[in-house]
Q: What sequence folds into this?
């Protein structure tokens, strides 16, 4: 019995390491997709990080974002435009990156605590139910459960994005020597709708991946 538990724990650790590594790779690749929109470029980072928040456990999500930022800080070109180095973190767009370090733990813990408090299954647990368990639920119960879980994951993505945008706006204001309103209009306002679309897409993809790897 002890051997089975040990193998199970080892398997879980290996799975977590693999998921964390994959999340970091997705964050890096998403940052390379750049569309210039004024002083702040459009990238898919918000999509990738929201995806990680929904799919990963809070601890794994925190390790993934910390690992991503550490790689970028030492010069690995994982930031937008295939850049890396401390200069990016200290530059006008660096606040968004620091915001990731704050926003991911807050959003991940919020998602975990509210799921536990309301008894809502995570995407991974929900898709892992047996066929008998799913059949036992009525259509209304299944629909209500889906929309509660889906809505909660959207809220977590919004929380993360608001924190990242606030940090990004503050650093842009300081580095660019502009007031908060100017910084907001330049660094945040053009991306509000796009970021929300990325959040929705990330949650949908996270659910699909959870279904595939259960």
A:
């Amino acid at each position: 019995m002890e051997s089975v538990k040990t193998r199970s724990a080892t398997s879980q650790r290996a799975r977590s390491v693999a998921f964390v590594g994959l999340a970091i790779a997705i964050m890096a690749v998403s940052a390379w997709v750049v569309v210039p929109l004024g002083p702040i470029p459009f990238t898919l980072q918000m999509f990738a990080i929201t995806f990680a928040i929904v799919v990963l456990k809070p601890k794994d999500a925190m390790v993934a974002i910390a690992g991503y930022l550490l790689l970028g800080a030492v010069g690995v070109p994982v930031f937008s435009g295939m850049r890396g180095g401390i200069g990016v973190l200290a530059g006008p767009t660096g606040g968004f990156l620091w915001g990731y370090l704050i926003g991911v733990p807050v959003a991940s813990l919020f998602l975990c605590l509210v799921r536990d408090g309301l008894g809502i299954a995570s995407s991974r647990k929900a898709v892992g139910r047996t066929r008998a368990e799913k059949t036992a639920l009525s259509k209304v119960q299944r629909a209500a459960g889906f929309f509660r879980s889906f809505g909660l994951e959207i809220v977590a993505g919004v929380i993360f994005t608001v924190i990242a945008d606030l940090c990004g706006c503050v650093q842009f204001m300081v580095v660019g020597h502009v007031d908060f309103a100017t910084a907001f209009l330049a660094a945040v306002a053009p991306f509000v709708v796009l970021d929300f679309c990325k959040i929705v897409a990330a949650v949908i993809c996270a659910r699909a991946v959870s279904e595939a790897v259960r």
Summary: The radius of gyration is 19 Å. DSSP finds ten helices and no strands in the chain. The CA atoms of residues 88 and 94 lie 6 Å apart.
